[in-house]
Amino acid sequence: MNRIKKISYSCLSVMLVTTIFTSASFAEKLPNLPVTFKSGAGTISENVIYAGLGTAGKSWYKLDLNNSIKQWEKMADFPGTQREQAIALELNNDIYIFGGAGKENENSATISALTDVYRYLPKENKWEKVNTRAPYGLVGHTGININNDHAIILGGVNQQIFDGYFVDLNRTKSNEIENKKVISDYFNKPVEGYFFNRNVMEYNAENNQWRLLGVIPFNGTAGSALAYDGNKITLINGEIKPGLRTSEVQTATLKNNQLQWDSVAQKLPAPISNQRQDGLAGAFTGYSMHTLLVAGGANFPGAQEKYAQQHYFAHQGLEKTWHKEIYGFINNQWKVIGELPLPLGYGVTISHNNSLYLIGGETNKGEAVNSVITLTMKDKKLIIE
């Protein structure tokens, strides 16, 4: 039997109670990944979870939830260049990998915001490169599947600025003074200087075509979490420039193939640990029993305050901090309703049967982990396995 934490949000304070339930009562505890894994990609197709890339390199794994014995199985290696921050979406029962930060080819000197797209065919355990390019470089982007064969992709860095930074770092790598100046010049700019992507892209897997779905009416973000329920899309926090997050939660309704954004944004409350409302990047998110959950993520506490004082290199001298808080959107407001077993961010969230599986990620000091954590809402309580 599994030992699990039972968290009730029905009272004003959060009570953590340890209790025992049979494994049949809730989602089954899944085994850890065979490798540590962060900044990778993953999705679910026909009750089979797939995950890989990132610090797993070109490795690609599956775990079949239909099997009585749950175990990870290594599948065909990804054929493209190694990459981090790609996203995986199921479209037409195949799995599409969009972009990431990596080299254009094995001979490239620097990494780039990639525009390529790959497709994995689960039934054949086979990869193929799709004859298309995303309209923009895709790093720090996020996406969802709608209508089975359409993807909506939001956010991400500016390809020219991102790529140029790594070109300049490589050019000055033998000169410490020039190299430090490149770093300082890159980070010491206001939000407007980074041109993070505000265009909403739609990709149609059926005809292999892209189109513009509109422009978001707020700052572009990178490393945001994205959730989708019915026709409602929620974009959670993210960087608005390198090292600086926003605490805003933006919502939109998908109607007549257009996104209609709410005029007023919600905000996540400050983490209990430091009471600074600096927002998050790399958080986990999804719905359980129609309750939107947000867990973990990382930031630089104090960066918002420094930026408000026009210190544009806002995270300079600050310590990157990973968080354990789990937020729930309950009765039209955000509440802290529990904690992860460890500070965690930059993993993959899989939604299945009213549970969220938090796969991999990184903890303090950016250390990659191989854990799989399950979050489930039941009878207005959060169950953590």
Automatic annotation (TrEMBL):
Keywords: Kelch repeat, Repeat, Signal. Residues 1-26 form the signal peptide. This is N-acetylneuraminate epimerase. It holds the Pfam family NANM. It comes from Proteus penneri. InterPro entries: Kelch-typ_b-propeller (IPR015915), NANM (IPR056734), NanM_proteobact (IPR019936).
